[in-house]
Each structure stands twice: as C-alpha cells, then as structure tokens.
Amino acid sequence: MKIDYSLVTRRTFLNTLFGGWVLALLSGSMYTLFKFAFPTLGKEPDFVVLKATDFLDIPLNSVKPFAWGGKLGLFFKKDNGSTTALKGVCTHMECNVTYKPEDKKFYCACHKGWFDQNGKNIEGPPPKPLELFDVKVESEKLIIARKGFKVELPKA
After folding, report:
1. Which run of H or E residues covers position 29?
2. What is the structure's pLDDT at 3?
C-alpha cells in the first residue's frame, strides 16, 4: 500500500528500518568481538625498551622517532648532550609534531602550535605541554617509561 503523494511505500520503509537494525546489531557484535580479540589495541604502553646504541649516538640538537604504542614518540638530544623523550603528539588535536633544529622548537603543523625544547607550549592553540617520559639506560637497553612508572625487566 502506498499513501497518496508518498515517495516511499510502507514495505520499503519497513525493509529499510529492519535492514538498519540488522546492520547496527552486526556492527555492535563485530566491535565487541574485535575488542575481545585485541584488548590492547589503541592503548598506550607504560614503557618501551629500545636498543640504546640506536638512540644515544644521534647528533646533538636532533630527534629520533620511536613507536609509543600507536603514537609517535621522540627521543631528543639537546645541544648540551642531555637527552629526553616525549610524546610527539600535539596536545591540541593530536597531530604529530616535528622538531625544527634551526628554531630549536617543536612544531605542530596542523594549527601552528609551538613547543620549546622541554615540551612546554609557547605559542598557538595547544593547551598543555607535551608529555615527557623518564629515560633510563640499562646495559644495552634504553628504557623509556611514563613519569613515575617503575620498570622491572626480567633478569636473564
């Protein structure tokens, strides 16, 4: 039956409604199964262990990226030889930041945000500084961890 001046029949309307309901049910089920199969996907780690020689030998006033879960991490060696590690994701809209060695600042190209060498927000829209990590070297391993997180590696 079609209502006068209607572009959609009752059958089409009910089929669309039922199809949408089935699609929503399948999507919810697939999302639940996916989260069950990969519970750590998308979560950031508490620490990462890297090969120390790959990072400690970089030139002064430069950065080397590393994977911090699914995000960008930056290992930074300052002019004075001190090192630090920070999350290379802008605190405004989570765009990746890059280091500009000529300006000695970190730059977020998405909305022109600037951070100093210590990750402090100094210009543009970023509301908070970049997240800094603890850096520790044990034998051949470079351990980068969240601030205050105690890392205990298994003894070999």
Report:
1. helix 10-37
2. 64
